[in-house]
Write a structure and sequence with these properties.
It is a single chain. The protein has helices at residues 41-54, 73-82, 98-107, 121-128, 133-146, 165-174, 199-215, 229-232, 284-290, 292-299, 304-307, 319-326, 362-368, 373-389, 397-402, 409-413, 423-426; strands spanning 8-12, 59-63, 86-91, 111-115, 150-157, 179-184, 220-224, 257-260, 265-267, 277-278, 359-360, 394-395. The strands form two sheets. It has a ten-stranded mixed β-sheet with strand order 7-6-5-4-3-2-1-8-9-10. A two-stranded parallel ribbon has the order 11-12. It starts with 7 loop residues before the first strand and ends with a helix. It is α/β, with parallel strands linked by helices. It contains 17 helices and twelve strands.
Length: 430
């Protein structure tokens, strides 16, 4: 059986950066020129060609380091868009002026994820290692919006700034951001020098994210690298609620997501440094389909308390944290403080993983495949649920037209998806 297509790919285009962030997982560096071992333009274009075949319709997050330091960024964005991918740029925002924002828009970028770690300058500038970084990020947000790019505000949470999340959500809403992503630190790269949240603080902060989403219904607020969120909301695999689809997995690493390093290496996610294959010498499809590490992430249960948990499929813990803590990807995630109550059994394999599909007419299936990959399953689920509810055995083009957005589908998906489809739920940057 072929593997599922990736929904999202994160590509560290370069290790070069104009900042010196204390928590950088890539250990990006100040450098005048591109390192010799980083993929040049022609090699990068060849990778985009491979992505079009292995991850059709996927969101491609072009990040760094600082991707705006690559002179060919707009060219790569255009190539990705022409290949049917959805390119977005993950940036610290300080180099994003009106001209660059407009060039990225014209090249086909759907949006920009811009990092801002505090509602006030001091903490952000200290964390990012350069005075004025906060002001530069704020200006980057403004020019991106003015150019018509969707903006996702991104913050990494620490003990020092976790009580600032409410002010950051307010700021994101004032700036008309598409979404606000709260990243929970994984201690890799320079991040090993940082103090991670204690388990109790994780739980408290995740509950604050839930509260903030309720207080800002027009803004998508998501916890990233925090698979415990589904447990916190009481959502088992196969269940939906709070904007989380029934099919969504807490951790997509190696399942629907992978990362490309500046040198063309493939890893399950940015926080797992082990390179599984080299795109300069190996086909991406072969790496994605056959590598034992990826097969293990897809088909094996984690060990320890994660494997025995009553949320082992719907959460399963963070695989990168398990690796950092225990040296094994499939070890338990000890950062999670939850223990399965004695009266609950380990979670069963979700029925949605084996659910029968409604039949699809060929032309209707072709239209479905035009939808970006990272929201396609969610669209399919809603359409098939409607078909089952209406007693329809085969979805036709006529059925699609009768259930087309915004009158039905997009309202039920609680946009933003549509023109900036799903950016706020998964776009990532440093």
């Amino acid at each position: 059986m072929p593997p599922p297509n990736p929904y999202i790919v994160s590509w560290n285009l370069t290790r070069r950066c104009n900042l010196a962030c204390a928590h950088c997982y890539l250990d990006a560096v100040l450098r005048k020129t591109q390192a010799r071992d980083e993929l040049d333009t022609q090699a990068a274009l060849a990778v985009i060609g491979q992505l079009a075949g292995t991850a059709p319709g996927a969101m491609l997050v072009l990040t760094g380091g600082e991707p705006l330091l690559r002179r060919d960024l707009a060219q790569l964005v255009t190539a990705a868009a022409d290949a049917g991918l959805l390119p977005v740029v993950g940036t610290n925002g300080t180099l994003l002026d009106t001209s660059r924002a407009e060039s990225l828009r014209d090249a086909g970028a759907a949006g920009a994820g811009i990092s801002l770690d505090s509602s006030r300058p001091h903490f952000h500038d200290r964390l990012r290692g350069v005075p004025g970084a906060w002001a530069g990020a704020r200006l980057g947000i403004a020019v991106a919006r003015q150019a018509g790019l969707a903006v996702v505000l991104q913050s990494t949470v620490f003990e020092e700034n976790r009580r600032d999340l409410g002010a950051l959500a307010d700021l994101a809403e004032r700036e008309s951001a598409l979404a606000f992503n709260v990243f929970f630190l994984v201690c890799t790269g320079r991040g090993v020098t940082q103090t991670d949240l204690a388990p109790a603080a994780y739980e408290e902060t995740l509950r604050e994210v839930v509260r903030l989403q309720q207080a800002h219904p027009g803004l998508k607020i998501r916890a990233r690298c925090a698979p415990y969120m589904r447990r916190l909301q009481g959502l088992h695999a196969g269940e939906s609620g709070g904007g989380y689809a029934d099919w969504s997995s807490a951790c997509l690493a190696g399942r629907r997501y992978f990362r490309i390093t500046p040198e063309g290496g493939v890893t399950p996610c940015p926080y797992v440094p082990a390179v599984l294959g080299d795109l300069r010498t190996q086909p991406l499809q072969q790496i994605w389909s056959e590598h034992p590490t990826l097969l293990g992430l897809r088909h094996e249960l984690p060990g320890g308390k994660c494997g025995a948990c009553d949320f082992r499929y719907s959460c399963g813990g963070c695989r990168a944290r398990a690796l950092a803590q225990h040296g094994e990807l499939l070890a338990e995630d000890s950062k999670c403080g939850y223990l399965t109550p004695p009266d609950r059994r380990p979670e069963a394999l979700p029925e949605t993983a084996q659910r029968p599909r409604v039949a699809w007419e060929a032309d209707a299936q072709a239209r479905l495949l035009r939808i970006p990959a990272f929201v396609r399953d969610r669209v399919r689920t809603l359409l098939e649920a409607s078909a089952i509810g209406e007693g329809v055995e085969t979805i036709t083009v006529e059925f699609l037209l009768n259930h087309r957005p915004p009158a039905n589908l997009l309202d039920r998906l609680r946009a933003p998806i549509g023109q900036r489809a799903g950016l706020g739920t998964i776009v990532g940057s440093e």
